[in-house]
Amino acid sequence: xxxxxxxLPASQPQGLPLWQVERQTRASRLAGVIAIALVVLAASxxxxxxxxxxxxxxxxxxxxxxxxxxNLLAGYGGMVSIGQQAFFGVxxxxxxxxxxFVGVNPFVAVPLAAVAAGLLAWPLSRLAFRLQGGYFAxxxxxxxxxxxxxxxxxxxxxxxxGTSLTALAGIARSTREAVTFWMALAxxxxxxxxxxxxxxxxxxxxxxxxxxxxVASESQxxxxxxxxxxxxxxxxxxxxxxxALYFVGNLRISPDAAFSVNWTAFAIFMVVIGGIGTxxxxxxxxxxxxxxxxxxxxxxxxxxxxxxTLAIFVTVFFKQGLWGYAQQRWGWxxxxxxxxxxxxxxxxxPD
Length: 351
What we know:
Elements: E1 3-5, E2 18-22, H1 26-43, H2 45-48, H3 51-76, H4 85-102, H5 106-128, H6 134-152, E3 163-164, H7 173-200, H8 202-212, H9 214-219, H10 224-250, E4 252-253, H11 255-258, H12 262-274, H13 280-296, H14 301-317, H15 321-330, E5 340-344
Antiparallel strand pairs: 1-2, 2-5, 3-4
Helix pairs in contact: 3-7, 3-10, 3-12, 3-13, 4-5, 4-6, 4-10, 5-10, 7-8, 7-10, 8-10, 12-13, 12-15
């Protein structure tokens, strides 16, 4: 347990309470043990589980990573974007280009594609950050549309109809599915660790202060522009990673699939349902969305109506999302980022 205990001043009478600053809770410690056990169990799935369930896990993992990055950007940073699919698509297409045309192993190309998406975010931020509020949201969507139209006019990658990932043709299907699964599992663990570590740092505190008030944050010495830039780049990196992983598993990509605004719409749905501004929220939201998509997507328009109705119900009766409500009602926190002051009484000194 990470704790800081105050020294007892020489002038303080014996018997008065000491204080401790704790950052972990009993629930978080238990969750950590369970999480390690689940990761170890999941890592063994390629040796005993059906391939269909591994593909489902990869899909859930991509949903979660993309939603977690949107939550970091909007839920913690206050930068509401509806154009994060730009980096999702870039990740997918860079992975495909490196694999099909450069000869890079597609599995090696996945992290390289994520880096490319993060690097692209730097010049794009110069455009997006000129806008504020709703204009920023619309501006990010316009950037994504420009990228979609650009890729749709590149015949080398199939133009508007897309193309297939041929670089994996020489790899056995079982090997391909197992490696894709392990990469998705590692990416999910890394995404949680990255977001959790960032939010527990001084930069994380600066980010949440920036969300509440940029003016007040700047007056306290926080470099607002630099903080926003780094969060934007990290969110783009994660979105690119999700896109590269998704299309490695899907084996085919097209501009309409990669740059669809539905990706951001689904991310918003997952974060709002699970709990915006929490690490647990996107995890819960991704599981709920996957379950609804798996069992009800065949209903077409009624499925979309059901998603909208559920989102309205949660926003009306659970304004902080399902996990946000549980956290507020029962104090559940599997990934605590706040410090708690705990008082304790020292033992009485012997006479």
